[in-house]
Hints:
The structure is a single chain. This protein has nine helices and three strands, in the order βαααααββαααα. It is mainly α and about 260 residues long. It has a three-stranded antiparallel beta sheet with strand order 1-3-2. The radius of gyration is 17 Å and the shape is globular.
Amino acid sequence: MLTCSSFLPTAGYFPLVYSVNFAVSYRIDDQQQPAIVASKMSFLFGGRSTKTFKPKKNIPEGTHQYELMKHAEATLGSGNLRLAVVLPDGEDLNEWVAVNTVDFFNQINMLYGTVTEFCMADSCPVMSAGPKYEYHWADGQTVKKPIKCSAPKYIDYLMTWVQDQLDDETIFPSKIGVSFPKNFSTIAKTILKRLFRVYAHVYHQHFSEIVKLGEEAHLNTSFKHFIYFVQEFNLIESKELAPLQDLITLFNGKP
């Protein structure tokens, strides 16, 4: 049993039809539609981007991390997601991971904000990602023993916990000259692992609503960017990615 939120395979099978549907809806190549790719960092869901699940996390202007964020936005403007995740020459890996972790939190925050009206305790009584995967919540501090809860409650716990980490200056320092903690990589990996679970839940349980809202292209672009980033720096174990492995394989262009 994991000391953080636990990951429990459940009986059943992984429905390939999900991956097929995702692929059919996904029509943005790395080199195409750069305007969509560039705009997603600040305006991921167009007119719906003002609706967020939690308050947006801002990187203070005048900091080096803010400069890195602007660099990332400019790189995304080329439309090449593979290039966008590469560590810029001469930059610190921890700072690069920190900036992108904040960005992914904001993206997922906006993403989940579009489906909160569909993700209710009665419709999503457990936090799942299809029939095979179920998540129980524990943060190792206030909740030490994993608890089974509804998807909206789990995601509320998760996003609140992530927000607390991002706001902690001892973990995510924003001031020049302040070093990252020695365990920063471990903390960042845990954050990204948990954020992945929101993507997984939305894809498996709410993709039809995403399609009806016309947001599937933005969702796919955001998730592809996320996957390229965590794969570039080996930030999430492959077993944790299993709920969306078919889709990830398609995004990676593998047979």
